[in-house]
Amino acid sequence: MVFLYKRFGDKSNRLLQNMHFEAYCKDNNMEYHNLEFYDMEDFYKIKDKYSFKKIPKIFLPNLNTRYSIIENLSKFARKLNIKNFLIFDYMNIEDRNNIALYDKQILENRDKTIFVSGWEFRVPELAIKYRDYFKEKYTPKLEMSSYIYERI
Length: 152
Prior knowledge:
The structure is a single chain. The chain is an alpha/beta fold. β1 (2-4), α1 (11-27) and β2 form a beta-alpha-beta unit. The protein has a four-stranded parallel β-sheet, sandwiched between helices. It has one domain (2-151). The relative contact order is 0.20. Helix content is 45%, strand content 11%.
């Protein structure tokens, strides 16, 4: 199972980041969840069983605290030699469209819980392959988009 746990940018950048991770997981039949998409669920009418939206805002830690919790759990698991909890960050330009690296880190560990992040994770061929799927899933729903235009 793959979780995108760290956001980069605002709405459109996060959508782009999500699309690449989601396309890769979809193409490899891996369960995928974006932990940082909870604030856009209503806009796109999508629900995720691991959504932070289910946590009352008063109890939801800030972004850096959430990241630290996940990263510290990973370090703790490594110290205990627990190997089913992994984190991979794709922040170097060399990571872009590096399918061999993605397969080695993500696909070969598909039976583990994997937390991913990074602006440089890119699979443009898969994003194009699933363009109709993304178009349907991430087209803003009419009632929500008209609500936004009324408020502007």
